[in-house]
């Protein structure tokens, strides 16, 4: 954080009353936050945005909606790639010799398995190196495997292509404040489901009339356009913040002149609400430019995050209910 946020209009010096409130806040159950500011009766912005113009929370609304639409199209096409063939599977079976008909079901079951494997690869990588490079890479894989499937000349090649097709992060919550996420995620789900429904219906006409190659071709064209839009509009949404920013207030130490000082004795709480906005400081952090937006790698890789991800995933799998659900899900998909 910088000096620009330590202004009287944006932060306040801690008093006895503030200390009492802090004690009450610290007694709250872990994982809970205070969403309403009692003084102004307005909503507290969580996480606390920074004065850096490159903070994804500071993106304009049109840019945030553009990201929602792009990610929704990506999600819809991923669902189409893995699930839509079930609607026209009898037509697909007729494309292969009778002796291969039993193996044709692998076109439906393998992608679901590899979608899970893809999550185990993409999610920890997005934590370690950032969301943008992983998202671009998964779209590139989606595009390449779509071309593979469209040109597959054998069932084995087709199955292999669809397995890679499903190796395909969630970024919407990182560009919105806590009180906005429910509404914006609803937009995402609504757009995605509308596209999926329309494409499922279209599949029943495209495959019988134009053929399976054209079905893959149409989806691949959409994925290609999505990849181009992603490169220009989907910025890196990972951003380093103080841990207390996730609680809606950043605790600062100031010197007697009101400047940030790690050894300062004056404490201040920086809190941003819907009525008390923060001021961007491009002079210190630099203005946000297209070059910043188009940069693919923004962080030094944190490979220790991979171990943390797999360790916590393994700890979750130890829970009997989770383990039982995984077994049941696998049994139903494999049946």
UniProtKB/TrEMBL annotation:
Database matches in InterPro entries: MFS, MFS_trans_sf
GO cellular component, one term: plasma membrane
Pfam families: MFS_1
The keyword Secreted belongs to this UniProt entry's keyword annotation: no
Subcellular location: Membrane
Keywords, alphabetical: Membrane, Transmembrane, Transmembrane helix
Gene Ontology MF: a single term: transmembrane transporter activity
Region (Disordered): 1-21
Source organism superkingdom: Eukaryota
Membrane topology note: Multi-pass membrane protein
Main location: membrane
Protein name, entry field: Uncharacterized protein
Organism: Zalerion maritima
């Amino acid at each position: 954080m910088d000096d620009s946020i330590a202004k009287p209009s944006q932060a306040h010096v801690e008093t006895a009353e503030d200390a009492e409130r802090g004690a009450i806040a610290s007694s709250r159950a872990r994982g809970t936050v205070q969403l309403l500011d009692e003084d102004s009766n307005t909503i507290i912005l969580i996480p606390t945005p920074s004065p850096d113009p490159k903070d994804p929370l500071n993106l304009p609304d049109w840019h945030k909606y553009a990201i929602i639409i792009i990610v929704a199209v990506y999600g819809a096409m991923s669902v189409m790639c893995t699930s839509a063939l079930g609607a026209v599977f009898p037509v697909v079976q007729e494309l292969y010799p009778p002796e291969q008909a039993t193996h044709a079901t692998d076109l439906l079951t393998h992608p679901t398995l590899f979608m899970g494997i893809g999550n185990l690869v993409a999610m920890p990588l997005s934590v370690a190196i950032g969301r943008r490079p992983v998202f671009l890479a998964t779209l590139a894989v989606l595009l390449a495997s779509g071309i593979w499937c469209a040109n597959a000349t054998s069932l084995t090649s087709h199955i292999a292509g669809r397995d890679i097709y499903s190796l395909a992060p969630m970024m919407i919550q990182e560009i919105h404040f806590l009180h906005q996420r429910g509404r914006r995620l609803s937009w995402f789900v609504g757009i995605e489901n509308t596209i999926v429904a329309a494409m499922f219906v279209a599949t029943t006409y495209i495959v019988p009339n134009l053929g399976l190659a054209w079905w893959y071709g149409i989806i691949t064209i959409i994925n290609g356009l999505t990849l181009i839009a992603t490169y220009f509009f989907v910025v890196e949404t990972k951003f380093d913040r103080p841990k207390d920013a996730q609680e809606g207030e950043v605790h600062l130490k100031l010197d007697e002149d009101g400047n940030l000082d790690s050894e300062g004795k004056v404490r201040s709480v920086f809190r941003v609400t819907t009525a008390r906005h923060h001021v961007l400081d491009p002079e210190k952090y630099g203005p946000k430019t297209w070059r910043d937006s188009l940069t693919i790698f923004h962080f030094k890789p944190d490979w220790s995050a991979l171990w943390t991800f797999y360790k916590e995933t393994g700890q979750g799998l130890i829970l009997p209910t989770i383990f039982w659900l995984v077994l049941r899900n696998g049994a139903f998909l494999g049946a």
